[in-house]
User: Fold these one by one.
Assistant:
Number 1:
Amino acid sequence: MAAGSGLLLLRAVGFAVLLLPVVPRGPPSVAERRCFCQVTGHLDDCTCDVETIDAFNNYKLFPRLNELLESDYFRYYKVNLKKPCPFWNDNSHCGIRDCAVKPCPSDEVPDGIRSGSYKYSEEASNLAEECEEAKRLGAVDGSLSKETQQAVLRWSRHDDSSDSFCEADDISSPDAEYVDLLLNPERYTGYKGPDAWKIWNSIYEENCFKPQNVKRPLASGRGESSVSLSGVCVEKRAFYRLVSGLHASINIHLSARYLLQDTWSEKKWGPNVTEFQQRFDEVITRGEGPRRLKNLYFLYLIELRALSKVLPFFERPAFQLYTGNKSHDAEMKNLLLEILHLAKSFPLHFDENSFFAGNKKEAAKLKEEFRLHFKNISKIMDCVGCFKCRLWGKLQTQGLGTALKILFSESLIEKIPESGPSYGFQLTRQEIVALFNAFGRISTSVRELENFRNILQNMR
């Protein structure tokens, strides 16, 4: 990958794909039209159009979301970057200095986050204490009702429950450390070649749904192969487009924050137009570039829809973004709710009701297959050799997995009580931080597309 990021799962895998050879192009004005002329109008499987997303994201949502992600609650993410790859023996790691991740000294992390890092709020921390007490009482007191015992059991098993789309880190592990995301930004790291290609190939060829008679290994360095999805059901088609959209997002970050100058006195990062065109120009990519960008917009709609659906969970008075700074926490919760209400107001949301809507037995089987495929992709993040790419890959994978969990838990979210704990649907702090940061990466990609469009137009 090449940017410290992670894809759809890989976006996180910000591992830049092998750089393509520079191909002669026409005047910039022609190239600009080639990159963007087909990325307009309606999106497949959606009622939305690209122009509506651009206006909504770039001028309404993006500025507010950026402010939220700079706050203490969302900038600190606990992650285990030392987990071994579960799929192949590979102890090689990227030796490039820009691949390194600098963890936070414990005293730099706000007390409120460290004291309850495994829960999502002060309410959840209190609930956990009550549950532990209930367990102790249950050992000697048979008067606890079955409902209380079941509630305790549900909470203790939450992280391993069947609604999870990701292989989450054990953040109580000694190898799990806090990372300041603002000090370890996702960008081009120089990680590429056979190791990065192996990750992408595993994602596309072994974990993406596509017609069984199609087997096209990734051409080294060229991103995903061209696959016709005609005849593939909407759920499997959506899965492939989510992966492709995340892949596109990673490559946009790589191109937008490219290492332009590296001298003893300074490093300069900025947009690399040639790199962008190599990945998205219609001619250079043999027609795939515009399709990849449209898949990015599809991914945007899926994650935006999840944010609009999860509003009741965050609206409860008992929920807070707990860091220990009471006034700042209240301010950030207000901003969070403003963003969620804004997401809900989007006029052309994706309609997820078309997913898994057929025969109940077959739909349940397909949903489980969908979940396990995605969970497998989240495990592949531990095979990424670049630690910064691994960090952003794991975070963005967990973020998208949390979005899918939300979309598939609508009935549970609707039953959340206005006050008191929510046993049916829960989000940990890790899931919340990943959800919003992952969407922040997608939102940034959409905004960067406008920047590249303007740069190409001005190069005439």
Note: The chain has a mean pLDDT of 76.
Number 2:
Amino acid sequence: MLLFLLVLMFTDDGQAQQVLGQKKNGSCRCEVNSTVWSFPAVKYEAVLQQVETCEGSLRDLQEQAMTSSRRLPEIKAKVQDVTARLQPFQYLLNQGLYTALSLHRLGHELGHLEADIGAVHSQLNNSQTQKLSKEVVKLRKDVDRLHISDTVNMQTVRENLRNLKNSVESCKTIPKDFRGQHSQCHKGLMTNISDPVTTKVSPYGKTHTSGSWGKQSQTDTEEQKNSYWVQPLLNGKIYGNILRVYQTYEDFMASTNHKDFTVAPAYNHANTIEGPSAVLYGEALYYHCYRSADVCRYDLKTNAVKRVTLPGTGVGFNNKFPYCYYDCTSNSDVDLEADETGLWAIYATVGNHGNLVVSRLIWDDEAQTLNVTQTWETRLFKKAVSNAFMACGVMYATRYVDEYREEVYYAFDTATGKEDNSLALPLQKVSKGVASLSYNPTDRQIYMYNDAYLLAYQAFF
């Protein structure tokens, strides 16, 4: 007789397993599936992996917490420093920080202008200085009114201030009959430019595509009268330290009988030439000094170098404001020029929003110093210009047309402070890149360093 028994077994997940048994020959027999008790290896591995992942995440969090703890004092110090620096301007917060601060700076700038106009008026005391005095009084009233007004038209005020400053600069030392003082200068702007009258590859070869060249711009002696010069940038198309001078035009064209001058002992020296900006004027080479806001003067007779810092807030150098209309000309931040009226520097400043600035330079032979006498601010953005040059006290700017043409399209007259952006004078070229462009007052020709090609054009007024 078989006796069926119900045997309750429990599996690993806590559920009961029912098993039927038989009683036979005094014993109970049943078949039990033992696989239900096998070790859960798969689940164990999954849990183990989760534990390891949690440990890794915990270590990462601990490292981040330690890093944050170390940086916290540094961050706190920075916050305290910024807070301390802003504290003097805290009173401007409720009135609008930027507006009030801009007005504060504008008033400070206007104060300097009032002092300049007062000095000029006390020396000249003519109708023009009287007019300037009245205009600056009116501008002062406008600025004072803005301090208590809820609306500020800063653009209009700054434009009026810029025009007034340019008028004062033009009035300082330039005589009334400015162009009449120079026999080569005409009262009108440039009217035309010829096709190239000189075309030659640089004596340094086609690989040296950046530099400057031209005819001696000031001919005080017979030796200087027919001399030509080339100043290549031999280091990365940015830096140079060699000036090559030819005594005659024939020697220049044949690349013979030259004399080399070493301006600086190395390419990273403080007196090294930076950018394609040099001009040979009289007994000296004027150029942009290495990584600075300075203009250098290298004396060909004594080898002495004198320098002057260009005026303005945040003068661009080290490729900050290069000529950049189509392709940027590396490190062309400061451009040295010469014309019938003397020496000039063309550059841009942060204070003038990257627009072109023109400064007049004078060498004091008695004191052996290089000085800046006047500065004008234009509204022309320097990076929107391919190059610029001076002629008869007028700055002309060019723009890229295509691979074989440039165009003179803008003029700023330092004698009047007025500008003209309606010009359209074509300028032919051999290659795309224009490293430098300079006007020469002795022959009224324009000299271009055009991707290692040396080109010259006749200018007409």
Note: The CA atoms of residues 278 and 287 lie 4 Å apart.
